[in-house]
């Protein structure tokens, strides 16, 4: 009789110092993670670091779909952490999909551009094509609420999320979806209330007051196939991006 060997899930490194040890070494491969938090909590930085370090340190190509700021603004902001996105874009290891220029009516010299208004299927087909074009292993969509604004009918967001879920599973990419939560501490984790159901993991970024100063914290609210604590861990956004302090000490 053959005994099936236990196959541990392959882990995808986040690229965020201190974070992977909180989730058994990384995200389960192919998983979809919802990154939620209020404004300015670091969602875009976290997601960009995941894509950038994927290319730089782990040789895993990644696609960043930016629906909140133009691709060129994203590159410029991320350059302040010493990250040269363009270098990896030229090498075909990163693709940034610009979902903003057309909306604000600015010309875009970008290679990957989303049209102003789109329907669900075109949007998903486009992402699928870009992922295949660079053989991406990682994907970020920043953010879910801004997809909704772009749709011909906002109420189609549920349809998008359900279809997105299916194509993500099929593509096998490890994905971070960002969203904003009015009150993540008290159960309301996402804007539409269904994002957390399609996501196999939920990470909450938070700002809390301590000694008249706002401090940053990260909480892993859910991560399937993973042992993780429910503690809040402090993190900083520093000159090289995000660093998490798993021992809980800095503040
Ligand atoms: N180069 C930098 N060095 C240190 N901290 C920075 C740097 N750039 C940005 N920050 C900090 O990161 C914050 C913004 O982070 P980020 O844009 O990732 O947040 P977000 O959650 O995506 O916000 P939004 O709701 O605007 O999308 C800034 O408000 C600032 O506090
Ligand atoms: Mg952002």
From TrEMBL:
Domain named KaiC: residues: 10-251
Residues involved in Mg(2+) binding: 44, 142
CDD domains: KaiC-like
Designated name of the protein: KaiC domain-containing protein
Gene Ontology molecular-function annotations: ATP binding; metal ion binding
Positions with a binding annotation for ADP: 40-45, 80, 216, 222-223, 226, 228
Entries under PROSITE patterns matching the protein: KAIC
Domain of life, per lineage: Archaea
Entry keyword annotation includes Nucleotide-binding: yes
Lineage, opening ranks: Archaea, Methanobacteriati, Methanobacteriota, Thermococci, Thermococcales
Keyword tags: ATP-binding, Metal-binding, Nucleotide-binding
